[in-house]
Amino acid sequence: MKNSEFVKHLNQYYPLSEETIQDLLNICSEEYYHKNDLLLESGSMARYYYFVKSGLIGYYTVDELGNNIYKIFFEENSFAASTAAIIKNEPSDFNIIALEDCSVIQYPAKAYRELLEKHHDLALFHLCYLEKNWVVKKEPLEVSLKYETAKKRYLQLLENTSLYNRLKQHHIASYLGITPTQLSRIRKEIN
């Protein structure tokens, strides 16, 4: 696992020392989840961070009517977790589900947080990661959800063909905050 995509991705955010990498790899395990397995169930404590080696993971909540509302999808080489639940040490409001068979590198949040205090470079990695993914990437998403039409958001999703082609239509509709019928109308309009 030493020269894995995982280590490569960590180093893309901030270069880590050999000692830091070794300490981190010592708390990691590789886990497999089958399609539709929950990595985390809403109402449970979020105990792990995940790095997606293969497969597709979805992050959703359930509305009052029992519909799954997808917030984000994680493809290969991305980090996934119920970050807010980990930070607040509260049960997660979200479910994390394998939308395909998945292989992940899983590491316990508690042990990882201890490593953040021990290794300055890991803390800087974490800071850079959060800035890039939870501030820089998330802000335009929130603005688009508030001000852009479902059609425009659909066209933006279409640009990410690798993700788009892996999603079922009900996942796309849920992510856009519309019904499958509304999605059909948008798709007809575009074609």
| Count of helix runs | 10
The protein's oligomeric status is single chain
Mean pLDDT: 89
Major sheet attributes = 4 strands, antiparallel
**DSSP strand tally:** 8
Q: How is the largest sheet built, in terms of strand order? A: 1-8-3-6
- What percent strand? 15-25%
- As a percent range, the share of helical residues equals 40-55%
Spatial gap, N to C terminus: 45 Å
Please trace the helix and strand order, writing H or E for each element: HHEEEEEEHEEHHHHHHH
Describe the structure.
By secondary structure, this protein is of the alpha+beta class. Helix 4 crosses helix 5. The mean pLDDT is 89.
Core attributes:
four-stranded antiparallel β-sheet, cNMP-bd_dom_sf, Crp/Fnr family transcriptional regulator, alpha+beta, 8 strands, cNMP-bd_dom, RmlC-like_jellyroll
